[in-house]
Design brief:
The structure holds two protein chains of two kinds. By secondary structure, chain A is mostly helical. Chain A has one domain. In chain A, 71% of the residues lie in helices and 0% in strands. Chain A contains 22 helices and no strands. Chain A is globular. Chain B is 71% helix and 0% strand. In chain B, helix 1 packs antiparallel against helix 2 and helix 2 runs antiparallel to helix 3. The longest helix of chain B is centred in the last third of the chain and has 31 residues. The termini of chain B are far apart. Classes of the chains: A mainly alpha, B mainly alpha.
């Protein structure tokens, strides 16, 4: 129990904090004042994950965590890296929410409880090594985020966004579940290591009596198992692709992003992506990454993902070009960013060593995914934060026209928005550049030159609509009589933006160092230990109590 | 003819397909909610059927993961339905519509 609490500290902090927030909210007389404690909880979770980092390199601790978690969750540096990303994104988005909700008369305490539990769900999903845990983590985060999307209860747009997100998200969860159920049926395991082991062995079908004595257990033929495994893989990929908003599963993204209150948009854009990509990494590499097994056909998932990646980049960028609403533009651009991350996923199973040394190409690509998620988190929270800062109640910054002339009227706000938008576009001194660079390098190393070229062309397309924001702010004057965005007066938001900008710069100044951390995180996660094999006699005694 | 696992699996695949097709075709958000429930129940049936079919291991322990998974699905489906109905109701209060076609304020 002690081990469990120690190695699970980031999640434990968030859950206990969430319950405390709920109680405080129920008993306090006035609404408000919960933003800073909630953000502190997130930062405490990030600090806990950081403190656990050395433990995750230590074999004795890893073994103890393995026993404590019993195959449900992973304790490794990949999880901790994602935990830090999620907690940072969640904490910054919460600080933004504090002033936004106040300004827009939305201040209700449940926002903070929802966000805290959703972050805990994100961390569960990011660390899940069992399909049951994947499902519970996914739903914990999804239910919180659906409610956050519909948080503006008097706004029809907010409710519409929530409805679309909810319906498509639940549909995706059902697909993922059906895939999980089929995998369970084919292997008898719900834990990822057990599934991988079972799939890598040839089918062996003992005619053992079923539970009621009749000889029910009929052999599954190898070909049947291969086909069902492929179907399960496709269903699971589709379910997770919905969550990250990859084309063609992106229909909910623009509406949910536009309808949600802006800090909730910032939150779900970054944390849900980090968690879902983490789960994808673990499921696809952990279960289907091994192409030597009997069900090796399911190892063909990179061929599926490459289309998702290219389509996400293309559709995301092309539609973003046509938007007149900045928030919607950021939504479509987030689809494109998902595409860039998926491009790195495609090469993640490659085992050849990197030309420069330091691991395999696949590990380099997986590290590129983690690094991209961190870079995207700080840049995107900043961009949405600057958009929040640029508008006050009744004079929100929504369309490009609202931003016209902002550079002259309010240079500081315009500078902040430009800075984060440049990082999203991938301009060199910022971290966005290095995130894209790592993806492109991984693709080139693996021989996917055309994919690297697609990333480059799409990034160039992205620069156009990101720069349009700056052109509007600095080179256009507002039309006479048009509604203009007036920045809100909020030191807290400004401080949050400064913190985010600091991280964007630090990550951009020392990309090799942080990429090195990501690489370390991926390497140590390379070999998940399987749970006790089902047929080992020594394990049989333990199995009786715990049939895993 | 004895009922075998394949019957359960075909039934659950059919249920799942009906749910998925209904979700994609019908435009009423309440029907969409019901279709999702149908899909989740098809998943439960699959899990339970597979679990029943699994052999006991060498020590005689009966596998339970499918059953446990089904319980979690049931619990989460209930929470999901509650939230979904709340969102539908909340949209209805503002716009008096339940059809997903009418939720079209944000078309570009």
């Amino acid at each position: 129990m002690k081990d469990l609490l120690l190695y699970l500290l980031p999640i434990v902090i968030l859950f206990i904090g969430g319950f405390t927030l709920m109680l405080v909210d129920a008993f306090q007389k006035e609404e408000g004042g919960l933003a800073v404690p909630t953000a502190m909880l997130h930062f405490a979770a990030a600090a806990a994950a950081l403190a656990l980092w050395p433990y995750a390199g230590n074999a004795a601790d890893l073994a103890r965590a393995q026993v404590a978690f019993n195959g449900w969750l992973a304790f490794d540096r990949t999880t901790l890296f994602l935990d830090i990303t999620i907690a940072l994104g969640g904490g910054l988005a919460t600080l933004l929410a504090g002033s936004y909700l106040n300004e827009h008369k939305l201040e209700r305490g449940e926002y903070y409880t929802l966000i805290t539990f959703a972050s805990a769900g994100c961390m569960m999903l990011a660390g899940a090594t069992d399909l049951i845990m994947v499902f519970i983590g996914l739903e914990t985060l999804s239910l919180g985020v659906y409610a956050l999307t519909g948080f503006r209860r008097t706004s029809a747009r907010s409710q519409e966004g929530a409805l679309k997100y909810f319906l498509l998200g639940s549909f995706a969860a059902a697909l993922l579940l059906y895939g999980s159920a089929l995998l369970y049926g084919m292997t008898g395991h719900t834990d990822l290591a057990g599934i991988r082991d079972a799939l890598s062995r040839a089918v062996e079908m003992p005619q053992i009596a079923g539970q009621d004595g009749a000889a029910q257990f009929v052999a599954v033929q190898q070909t049947v198992r291969d086909r069902v495994t492929i179907l399960a893989m496709v269903l699971i990929v589709a379910g997770l692709a919905f969550k990250v908003g990859a084309v063609p599963f992106h229909m909910w993204t623009p509406d949910a992003y536009e309808g949600a209150p802006t800090p909730a948009t910032a939150y779900m854009a970054v944390t849900v992506k980090a968690a879902a990509f983490g789960a994808m990494l673990r499921v696809l590499i952990g279960v289907f990454g091994d192409t030597t097994g009997s069900a090796s056909l399911a190892g063909g998932w990179p061929g599926l993902l490459v289309w998702l990646a290219v389509l996400s980049m293309l559709v995301g960028n092309l539609v973003a070009l046509a938007q007149s609403n900045v928030k919607r533009m950021l939504a479509y651009s987030s689809i494109a960013h998902g595409g860039y991350i998926l491009a790195a996923f495609v090469v993640a199973p490659r085992a050849e060593p990197m030309p420069g040394g330091g691991g395999s190409i696949g590990q380099g690509a997986a590290a590129a995914v983690l690094f991209y998620l961190l870079a995207y988190t700080v840049s995107n929270v900043g961009a949405f934060g600057a958009l929040i800062l640029a508008g006050r109640r009744g004079k929100e910054a929504v369309s490009y026209e609202d931003l016209a002339g902002l550079g002259k009227r309010h240079p500081a706000v315009a500078l902040a928005l430009s800075f984060f938008v440049l990082s999203l576009a991938g301009m060199p001194p910022t971290v966005g550049f290095f995130a894209k660079y790592n993806v492109i390098r991984s693709a080139v190393e693996a021989g996917y030159s055309w994919l690297a070229l697609a990333v480059v062309i799409n990034s160039a397309m992205g620069v156009y609509y990101y720069l349009r924001v700056m052109v509007k702010m600095y080179m256009h004057d507002p039309q006479p009589g048009a509604v203009r965005a007036e920045p809100m007066d909020s030191p807290a938001t400004s401080l949050t933006l400064i913190a985010a900008a600091f991280m964007v710069l630090v990550l951009g100044m020392m990309p090799q160092r942080f990429y090195g951390y990501a690489l370390e995180a991926v390497k140590l996660a390379a070999a998940p230990v399987a749970a006790a094999p089902a047929d080992a006699p020594a394990a049989a005694a333990a199995e009786a109590g715990n049939p895993r | 003819m004895t009922i075998q696992i394949s019957h359960y699996l075909i039934l659950s695949a059919v249920l799942f397909s009906i749910g998925a097709a209904g979700f994609l075709v019908r435009r009423n958000s309440l029907v969409a909610l019901m279709c999702i429930e149908l899909m989740l129940n098809a998943v439960n049936l699959t899990l339970i059927a597979f679990n029943r079919w699994m052999p006991a291991n060498a020590a005689g322990a009966v596998p339970v993961h499918g059953h446990v998974f089904a319980f979690f699905v049931i619990a989460v489906a209930a929470a999901e339905a509650a939230l979904g109905l709340a969102i539908v109701l909340s949209l209805y209060r503002i716009r008096k519509v339940v059809r997903t076609d009418d939720a079209n304020l944000m078309k570009e």
